[in-house]
Structure to design on (418 residues):
DNA sequence: GAAAAAAGTTTCCTATAGGAAACTTTTTTC
DNA sequence: GAAAAAAGTTTCCTATAGGAAACTTTTTTC
């Protein structure tokens, strides 16, 4: 139980580390943002004015930060220019990261052992990633080895590499999975994987948030 | 080459299907939104006023939709109440889906065959998911079997189940991967996996966007 | 390269957002 | 349940956003 707690904390920490790219400060220059969107779409102020129903003088003033647009105006901008409002606030360059690569050799992941699982975190060199892959040897044999459901944000994909696994979950009957079988589920639903084969099963687990 | 194109289209379609949950209409009631955030945080107008530096009369008027706040005011709201601006626009309930589950038995995925790969899509019963898992038998033996790099949004995780694989990529030397090895990379970087073992290799591939 | 056209900015006015204080409604205290 | 306190709304004023038209700057035409 206290072991369970520890594991949970461990995962949330790792996940947080993987995501942190959220927003910068709220010091966004909405005018710059708008101008960039308009010019990128090759629109003149007159055209944008027709599309949004706003006076071109208004658009000009917004773009030059002479005026702070009201929410009503921002809605017109969004529908007229066909952008969703959040886009007006997101930092100009949403620099899609590109070119990273991280190889993990068999049995060389970062190990993390609990009483129920022996986790092997993969691709740990990379932070800010969308998925978190790890290979786990399942020691647990019954629900009681845990004390409570595992529950966290996001979605999970489980693939059986060795042995036989039973996926217990809050809203479904236990499902028995053999080598090659896989299951995709919402991690917010209580879930647990236990070994039911003679030897401890080995699975590949991937979490996304 | 035309085969490559087909594959690409196929993937983007699947990915689009998996994501579509974006935004609803831009008919958001920002006042309702704000009131919900404030009450959920158990703040009075006076407290919110102190936190944001806005007059409580202003807050009241915004909440009752008597006034359309300017962007400047929205920034104060965001920093003061410690929310990121997009949150002011997102529909009230961001219903975290919970309780879905989809099992795919070994060799029972949805098959999609090209000249280079034999894909087996997993968990296809579920849409709107963060990850897209598939198992692929790699027929390809060299870069020339493709004609061009594979490149698409998002990140990818590759795990070798059978055989020996070489991951070719735009910015790295080819990497040879054996059973149990895995690699995580940005899919925006040109990439290809080819078999280098006698028999065609089998890999598990997971994409997230 | 001068004239015309297009694109963008500024001016000036009106409509409305933001704030202080008065007021009303709701909740708490005893 | 009356009095006091707290929470929220409305009023009234000032500051500023939004729009039409004049104006300036930039681009295109010949």
């Amino acid at each position: 139980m206290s072991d369970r707690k520890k594991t949970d904390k461990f995962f949330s920490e790792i996940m947080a580390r993987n995501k942190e790219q959220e927003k910068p400060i709220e010091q966004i220059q909405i005018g710059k943002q708008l101008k960039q969107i308009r010019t990128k779409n090759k629109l003149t102020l007159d055209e944008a004015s027709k599309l949004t129903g706003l006076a071109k003088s208004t658009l000009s003033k917004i773009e030059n930060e002479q005026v702070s647009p009201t929410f009503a105006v921002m809605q017109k901008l969004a529908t007229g220019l066909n952008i969703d409002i959040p886009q007006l606030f997101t930092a100009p360059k949403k620099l899609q990261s590109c070119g990273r690569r991280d190889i993990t050799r068999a049995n060389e992941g970062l190990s993390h052992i609990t009483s129920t699982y022996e986790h092997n975190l993969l691709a740990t060199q990379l932070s800010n990633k969308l998925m978190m892959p790890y290979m786990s040897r399942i020691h647990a044999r019954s629900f009681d080895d845990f004390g409570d459901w595992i529950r966290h944000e996001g979605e999970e994909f489980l693939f059986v590499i060795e042995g036989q696994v039973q996926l217990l979950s809050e809203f479904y009957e236990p499902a028995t999975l053999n080598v090659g079988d896989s299951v995709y589920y919402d991690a917010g639903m209580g879930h647990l994987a236990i070994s039911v084969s003679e030897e401890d099963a080995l699975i590949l687990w991937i979490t996304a948030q």
